[in-house]
């Protein structure tokens, strides 16, 4: 018997309203708007400064789920599994998925899958396997990345990159917006992208440099203490070389396994890490600029939520025609990477 077909039934995202633009960064770092735009292609990013409680990963993920319900009318009561896929967690356990289940009164299993900026692609591969087995019917993949909390605003090389964002996807064996055709995962042991252990504190945090919104109040439903998420750090040149030189080979092999080439792809979405790096990757892959979808210039690097925000915006804009083939390719700490092929329904 052929495996069941799997669909991305709904795809939504959330980014906070408050803008963290380059002019602000000029005031706290030795940098300029022109330097930032020229180096990474980012004009602004978003920050969740209206929440100062103890559970920011849950909070921003919850907002994405609220948006899912508000924009699609989806009944959360029909979900039979929640899979959370974020770089960070508010608590050692339970994970954000369990907290989402409690918040919405859902008596369903939930677990977390954390694999840096590739987390959502890895989660979709797990969801795809469970749906093809027939174990579940509708899986909610939820993702929250308040990444400014682990960004060191004393480090010019990383502080210019990151913003906050979240996503929520319903994956189902029932026909939806996109068929999830195939997924390929890869990795190698490396610390060129990493975050230090919980408890470590950036030298200068977002709360040191950017004020909370007026009226924002701490909310501690479990009497918790706002956690430290560690400090993000990377070896930028090694990351750039990996993405530009190694990723095209991985992507080419993935497409070849489906008897496809890059010419068969209608749209490409990469990890929203650095626009210059994305442009270089597209050039090496042979992806025309007209097929390259991105929003890093407006939202910055929102870690594992980034590519989903691009997909969500594209679906809302009705950019895809039936039968269009979409390639997503992401990477993150680990090094871990993944590609997925989807087809517009």
Summarize the structure in words:
There is one protein chain. The protein is an alpha/beta fold and 345 residues long. The protein has a single domain (1-345), classed as Thiolase/Chalcone synthase (Peroxisomal Thiolase, Chain A, domain 1, 3-Layer(aba) Sandwich), CATH 3.40.47. It is built from eleven helices and 14 strands. The strands form three sheets. It has a ten-stranded mixed β-sheet with strand order 5-4-6-7-1-8-14-13-11-12, sandwiched between helices. A two-stranded antiparallel sheet has the order 2-3. Strands 9-10 form a two-stranded antiparallel ribbon. A hairpin with a 1-residue loop joins strand 13 (325-332) and strand 14. It is globular, with a radius of gyration of 19 Å. Mean pLDDT is 89; it is low at 221-226.
Please specify the SSE layout and strand pairing.
Layout: E1 7-14, E2 19-21, H1 22-28, H2 33-40, E3 44-46, H3 56-72, E4 81-84, H4 96-104, E5 110-112, H5 119-133, E6 138-146, H6 156-159, E7 164-172, E8 178-190, E9 193-195, H7 206-209, E10 232-234, H8 236-257, E11 267-270, H9 275-285, E12 292-293, H10 296-299, H11 306-316, E13 325-332, E14 334-344
Parallel strand pairs: 4-5, 4-6, 11-12, 11-13
Antiparallel strand pairs: 1-7, 1-8, 2-3, 6-7, 8-14, 9-10, 13-14
Average pLDDT, all residues: 89
What is the H/E string?
EEHHEHEHEHEHEEEHEHEHEHHEE
Distance between the termini: 23 Å
* Shape designation: globular
Strand content: 15-25%
CATH architecture: 3-Layer(aba) Sandwich
| The CATH superfamily title | Thiolase/Chalcone synthase
Give the spatial strand order of the biggest sheet: 5-4-6-7-1-8-14-13-11-12
Structural class: alpha/beta
Helix content: 25-40%
Task: Describe the largest sheet.
Answer: 10 strands, mixed
Q: So how many helices? A: 11
Task: Outline the low-pLDDT stretches.
Answer: 221-226
What is CATH's topology name?
A: Peroxisomal Thiolase, Chain A, domain 1
Q: Cα-atom Rg, whole angstroms?
A: 19 Å
Number of strands: 14
In CATH's first tier, which class applies? Alpha Beta
Give the count of structural domains. 1
